[in-house]
Each structure stands twice: as structure tokens, then as C-alpha cells.
């Protein structure tokens, strides 16, 4: 925390570990948003490729619907991760809750759809950094300043 010449307290300095988490979360958001955009642009080709190896009892509409759910799941995760990055940059002290939920969504989508492992790994690493002692001290200082 710093005090300027007017005697007002400034926001606590963001530690390097939190800045690293911001970078990791930014990359996670880019991977999820880019991945969802890429899969959406290749939707029909993905459906055609999947239909080759599936039994005849599974319809094209079922495959297309499942792929659509996966695409929008990745899009929503990417948007939430980007919102988390914005809130981290604005020194929001409750952003860790949002990003914890995002990691659970990433892991769930990874299990259900096999989505974007690199984005999930980046999100998990970013979340871990946000709960280390230096990060905890930073967020505690933000909470103290809010009172």
C-alpha cells in the first residue's frame, strides 16, 4: 500500500505472483475462446468425421447437438475466464471465487467433452497461484482497504 502527497491511501501493489496468474488466466481465456471459435467454424466437418466411426443407431442430429453443447460450454468458460481477468486487473477481492467456479467448469467440461486440455491446465495453474501466501496477503490487504 502507498500513501500519496494528499495523504490518501492507494490500492495495494499487485504481487508478481498475481500478475503471473493474470497472464495464465488470460491465456486460458484465449485458448477457450479460440478453441470454441475454431470448432464452431468446423462444425459440419467435425460431425462428418465423428459419424464415420459411430454405430448407425446414433444420428447426425445427436452428434451435432452434443458438439454444439461442447462449443457453447467452451465459449461460456472463455467468457467467464476473461471476466475473471478483468476483475483481477481491477483488484477485485472476490474474483478468486469466480475463478474457482471456472476451474470446476473447465474440469467438468474436460471430463464430459474432452475440451481444451491446455486451457484447463493454464486455469488450474493460475488458480493455484491465486491461493499462495503472497496472493492471500494481497487479497487480505484489498479486503482491509475495503472496510
Number of helices: 6
Query: Could you tell me the radius of gyration in angstroms?
Result: 20 Å
For the secondary structure, the number of strands is: 0
Shape: elongated
> Helix and strand succession?
HHHHHH
Percent range for helical residues? over 70%
Separation, N- and C-terminal Cα atoms: 15 Å
**What is the overall pLDDT average?**
89
The unreliable regions are none
Structural class: mainly alpha
Please give the largest β-sheet: none
Q: Hey, roughly how much beta strand do the residues contain?
A: under 5%
Write structural notes for this entry.
The chain has 147 residues and is mostly helical. The chain contains six helices and no strands. The protein has helices at residues 16-41, 43-53, 60-89, 95-113, 117-130, 133-146. Helix 1 runs antiparallel to helix 5 and helix 2 (43-53) crosses helix 3. The radius of gyration is 20 Å and the shape is elongated. The mean pLDDT is 89.
Concise account of the structure shown:
The chain has helices spanning 16-41, 43-53, 60-89, 95-113, 117-130, 133-146. The chain has 147 residues and is mainly α. The chain contains 6 helices and no strands.
Helix and strand layout, with pairings?
Layout: H1 16-41, H2 43-53, H3 60-89, H4 95-113, H5 117-130, H6 133-146
Amino acid at each position: 500500500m502507498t500513501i500519496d502527497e494528499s495523504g490518501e491511501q492507494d490500492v495495494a501493489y499487485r504481487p508478481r505472483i498475481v500478475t503471473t496468474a493474470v497472464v495464465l488466466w488470460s491465456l486460458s481465456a484465449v485458448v477457450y475462446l479460440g478453441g470454441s471459435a475454431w470448432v464452431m467454424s468446423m462444425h459440419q466437418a467435425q460431425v462428418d468425421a465423428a459419424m464415420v466411426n459411430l454405430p448407425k443407431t446414433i444420428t447426425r442430429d445427436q452428434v451435432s447437438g452434443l458438439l454444439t453443447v461442447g462449443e457453447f460450454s467452451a465459449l461460456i468458460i472463455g467468457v467467464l475466464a476473461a471476466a475473471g481477468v478483468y476483475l483481477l486487473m481491477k483488484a477485485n477481492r472476490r474474483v478468486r471465487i469466480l475463478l474457482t467456479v471456472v476451474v470446476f467448469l473447465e474440469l467438468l467440461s474436460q471430463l464430459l467433452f474432452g475440451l481444451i486440455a491446455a486451457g484447463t491446465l493454464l486455469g488450474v495453474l493460475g488458480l493455484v497461484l491465486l491461493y499462495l501466501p503472497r496472493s492471500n496477503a494481497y487479497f487480505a490487504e484489498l479486503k482491509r482497504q475495503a472496510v
